[in-house]
Amino acid sequence: MSLVHRLHPRAAFVAALLLLVGLLTAPTSASARDPGRSVPPPASTLHRPLPAAPAATVAARPKPPAAPAAPTATRFRTTATVTWKAPASPDTAITGYAVTAYRDGKKTRSVSFDASTTSRKVSGLTAKGSYTFTVAAKNVAGTGPASPRSKAAKLLALPGAPTVIAVTADTASALLSWTPGPDGGSPILGYRITPYVAGMPQAAQTFGPATTNTVTGLVPTTAYTFTVAARTAAGTGPESALSSAVTANVSPTLLFDAPTEATLGVAYTATLNVTHGVPPFIWSVASGTLPPGLILNPTTNGISGVPTAPGQYPVVIRVVDAAARSGTRLIVMTVNKTPILNFPPPPLAEVDAIYSDLLTVVGGTAPFTWGMADGILPPGLTLDPATGLISGRPTTVGTFPATVQITDANGVTATKQIRLVVQPKSVVTLTASTAATTFGTSVHFAAVIGPGQADGTVTLIEQQPNGVETRLGTFPVALNRSEFDLKLPAFGLNAFRVQYDGVSPLAEAVSNEVVIEVSAVPGQVLINQFAQSGINGLKDQFVSVINTTALDLPIAGFRIEYPGGGTILVPGSARALPPRHAFLFTSPGYSLFNIQPDLVVSGLGQGGLRLLAPDSAHTVVDAAGSTVGYAEGTPLPAFGSPPFVPHAWNRLGVAGVPQDTNDNVADFRLVATVFGPINGVPSALGTPSPQNSLGTYQQNAAVQSTLLDPVVAQGSPPNRVRVDGTPGSLIIRRTLTNRSSAPITQARIRITSLSQENGAPLPGASSPAVHAHMRVVNPVNATSSITISTGQTLLVRNLSMDAPATSPPGGGLGTTLTIPLELGGLRPGGEVHIALSFAIDTPGTFWIAYDVDAIGGGVVPTVAGSGKAAKKAKKATSARQRALDARRLAESRKLSLITGTVR
């Protein structure tokens, strides 16, 4: 018998205290921190730097970027502009690009650029020849493959010269209009106007792409001419011919303050005004045409007539004064068709529901005035005379015929008959398929809306027993009815109603209330691990309960009871517990500092615990302990006296699923950080490692476990290495791959079964009567460089146990080992190579089972598509993907259970 076996309980307590002091004062290793801890770990924990490995031993080298798509290119003279999209570079950021030019198919030069932009100019080309280009991206791993070649670079030219069509001077400015010349193959970005005095250019002024602009800063009584030049990406083109000469503050300034819009068939009159210049004035059309039907009087400065053709008419008007000075101005006249009301019939209205319908007009000249030519609108509705909006809340059921009238700016009117129907207020009736159900079971709801027409959606609203209201979903209404199935998310008496939001007609209504009793099913929440004393005495207590359902489970309102009448209530502020997550209760003396509690309570008693749901029946969903009423099936053995060493009752699990046979002795094992019985109760070497709601959770579906060397049998090196000695040792090496769509930020291994004295049985089979006794131990080195059969050398992380496990003596059931990950976590598709070290105290048949606990990760990406063929392919692909996922998960779990014989 070992020394620890022979320790008196009080001496064992002292030894455990000394061990705790040593743990608290010793430097904290990465394995001593739980990845679920809410406070930031010191730099020496999960992401501590690992010993540098030779370049040849890097496990997964970053890859160069992918090839970009074919770039586009334009060329002006001897400079080309090449544009591309950044390609994928999943391993590391793009650091630069290499652009290669080909003249008439032959490579001429390659230029490197940084990654700040994906559009670059390549100079030094020849004026002749056809140029194409490729682009290759770079990162720290090197240069990726080149893109396909671009199409031949489009040749650009400078824009052509505009043509000035109108210029009129004011006191110290001039208004110019022009028509653009050819753009040279590139959009015009703006214009440059240059004034000339006596043939000498003055300071140029720049403008945007509009073709009418005002030049300022002119000197009164000075004669000016002007040129206009266009600007594109290729540069500024040639100047236009000189405009007509104008003299600031002397030449006539042509004004046009009349409306530029007329109505077809309606008389139009406009007066042309002028300032400066010497009367009398002569008016004429310099270019373009007035709308058919309109004429310009050359002496009375008036445009008048009846337009006969709709459309837009640009026209340049010239005025000449008695001193032969002139001014010209571009006017764009529009002739609108007469107004027509052709809007659709107004939508159905409902009593006391918001109503809004905007009437529209085609043709006519704004502004418009709306009104009622005949009849009335339903009481509660009004027509806005400026906008044509009918709005309000109707108050009376009925049919209301009326005639709407529109009048445009020229006094032209149009009318249209309408009929507004107002139906009675909607009434919503909600029914449910049952008045009582169990948590996680679907309930069928039906909502019927009447008596009028109903179209839109209904939203199901739940009022939980604690008074909190939650919107559970929105569902479509078809033919005045909406039906849907839902799993109810809360325990106890839940009240439900729906809110109807109509779209045809607009309407709002709330249904009657339906009350449904939601009861718990035993086993939906299980006691996963607990201890009712520890190294800090009788107040060093905890219990971790786990959600076994596939739904977010409202843990608020659950109660824990212990012998003697003690009760702990989870407060209403507690957040819902996600699937496979746990909720951790602790007492004030709780000593496992690296796992943070969700709720600190005054105490958890002695002799057992039971968990009650907040339903009307107060269903006992689980119980575990040595006291009658606080146990299931065979009670757990009672301690001779409260143990004061790190220990816990640990629920067994198989492939990530907690075992629940309704028998405590079958479902639980006592684990401790020392060998041998704990105060008269047999124990297995292991670790108290409870889980909390924000901590890690089992995620074997996202993390695939494979052999380190897939070519070699799992019982052969380097996948399994047996080292002789006293005791002997066994090293198991695996590769873990993130198969999900998001990074895994933290991860650890959790031992769920091990061939050891009083340990967990062989999962899924009967345990051999005689088997090996093993324990997890810490490795000598944090990493190893392992060469596999392909010749590749991999960096393997040799995992160490998390506290409170120590080596010696080691760990077993419930022991966790943190997996060091690089900064940023394990990316999708990323791999990490690990090794577990075991001491062999007794040779023989052995088994080892572990789960991967992880934070982060996401779903496995699925194939998207459209159309019947694509949907059919997607359905087939999805089925194949599900089958593949299931097979990979089975393989992963198979490799998470290791069996064999050590001699």
Describe, in plain words, how this protein is organized in 3D:
With 903 residues, this protein is mostly beta strands. It has seven domains: 72-150, Immunoglobulin-like, CATH 2.60.40; 158-248, Immunoglobulin-like (Sandwich), CATH 2.60.40.10; 252-335, Immunoglobulins (Immunoglobulin-like); 349-407; 427-519, Immunoglobulin-like, CATH 2.60.40.1930; 525-685, no CATH class; 697-902, Sandwich (Immunoglobulin-like). Helix content is 6%, strand content 42%. It has a seven-stranded mixed beta sheet with strand order 48-47-44-43-51-54-55. Strands 57, 58, 59, 61, 62, 63 and 65 form a seven-stranded mixed beta sheet that branches. It is flat and about 125 Å long. Residues 1-59 and 861-874 have low confidence and may be disordered. One of its GO terms (cellular component) is membrane.
Q: Given the helix and strand composition, which structural class is it?
A: mainly beta
Radius of gyration from the alpha-carbon trace, in angstroms:
42 Å
Strand order of the largest sheet: 48-47-44-43-51-54-55
Annotation field: number of helices: 4
Cα distance, first to last residue? 22 Å
Mean pLDDT: 88
- Would you give the CATH topology of the largest domain? Immunoglobulin-like
Number of DSSP E strands: 67
CATH architecture of the largest domain: Sandwich
- Helix percent reads under 10%
Shape category: flat
Q: For this structure, what is the CATH class of the largest domain?
A: Mainly Beta
The main β sheet shows up as: 7 strands, mixed
- Poorly predicted ranges (pLDDT <50, ≥5 residues)? 1-59, 861-874
- Give the number of domains: 7
Strand content: 35-45%
Protein name: Putative Ig domain-containing protein
Keywords: Carbohydrate metabolism, Glycosidase, Hydrolase, Polysaccharide degradation, Repeat, Signal
Region (Disordered): 29-74
Signal peptide: 1-32
